[in-house]
Amino acid sequence: MSSGTGITDADGRPVPITVTVDEHMPATATVGGPAPIAPDAGPAPAPRIGIRLTPPAGELVWSCTPEAARELAAALLRAAEEAENAPAVRPVTVEAGELRRGDVRDGDRAMTVESARTDGSTVHVTWKSGAGRSWTQAYAADTAITLKRRLPEGR
Questions:
Q1: CA-closest candidate to residue 63, choices 22, 32, 34
Q2: Which of 20, 41, 51, 81 gets the most CB atoms within 10 Å of its CB?
Q3: H-assigned helices in 28-88
């Protein structure tokens, strides 16, 4: 990963992140925990995923098993989906010609854009209800449509 990931510290400064795959042994043992294994004693340690964050305030180095890395990735994906699907602070109004798949119309019932096709100055929008029914409506391209939620561009 690079500093262009959009990850920032509490002050909004970019935090470069480096992810590596290597064998990691802790430099010190925790109180009551197992003592570190000497390099020539016993089997080699299991591979570890190394995560290095380098904010301006100092460096943080973590490591975990591949299984824990998968759990972290899954948690990050769930959080990303939740953030993207969270309702907007206030509804957004767009012209019918700007509707895109995944947009959710503001109103009493959930209506999600399945597709939008422009035919001259008319836009044919296929909506899907929360109950799974689909229908198509035609709008003038400049008709204002109020949305409850809009996914980011490119999704």
A1: 22
A2: 51
A3: 66-85
